Amino acid sequence: MIRQLFLLSFILFLGCQNKNQSPDAIQQGSIAHDSLTRDQLKDIQFLFETFKEVDSAKYDKWIEDFKRDKNPDNEIQIWMAMANAYNSYCQNRKLNREMKMEVYQIIVMRSTEPEDEVLSQLNLRFLSQKDAIEVMQGYTLDAKPVR
């Protein structure tokens, strides 16, 4: 669920639209889990720290969103792969916030769509298409469409 919400905001930010589903159709689900495990919270803290420069959601919101997921471990795994791709690309590069936002948007999109689909939808302002391809190479999971 958290992935769906972020994808929606980034699709709107990029001016892209999913041809199969209107962003208005995505709705926030109810809380599925009253609590999360210590390991899940540790991973969520890592994700929050990784993405806090490019994602304005507070830590408590990250926790709440993962509580809404039917399978938070699966969603955490996806976000950890996204964090690895983000960190892999951003480390040892001098990127400003706008560039990091594009890296984040590329990774969010890549988590739900194959590379060729992402490339066809991108409206890059700060990174090149070659950069986008390099960013996506860091994301090693299969694309999982938003449902």
Key structural traits:
147 residues
Describe the structure.
With 147 residues, this protein is mostly helical. It is built from 7 helices and no strands. 27% of the residues are buried. The model is unreliable at 14-19 (pLDDT under 50).
The sequence of SSEs as H and E is HHHHHHH
Low-confidence stretches: 14-19
**Helix percentage:** 55-70%
Number of E strands? 0
CA distance, first residue to last residue: 9 Å
The profile of the biggest β sheet is: none
Total DSSP helices? 7
Shape: globular
Which class of secondary structure composition applies to the elements? mainly alpha
Mean pLDDT: 85
Instruction: Report the C-alpha radius of gyration, rounded.
Output: 15 Å
| DSSP strand content | under 5%
Report a brief summary of the structure.
The protein has 147 residues and is an all-alpha fold. Helix content is 59%, strand content 0%.
Which helices and strands occur, and which strands form pairs?
Elements: H1 2-14, H2 38-51, H3 59-68, H4 72-90, H5 97-110, H6 115-121, H7 129-137
Helix pairs in contact: 2-3, 2-4, 4-5, 4-7
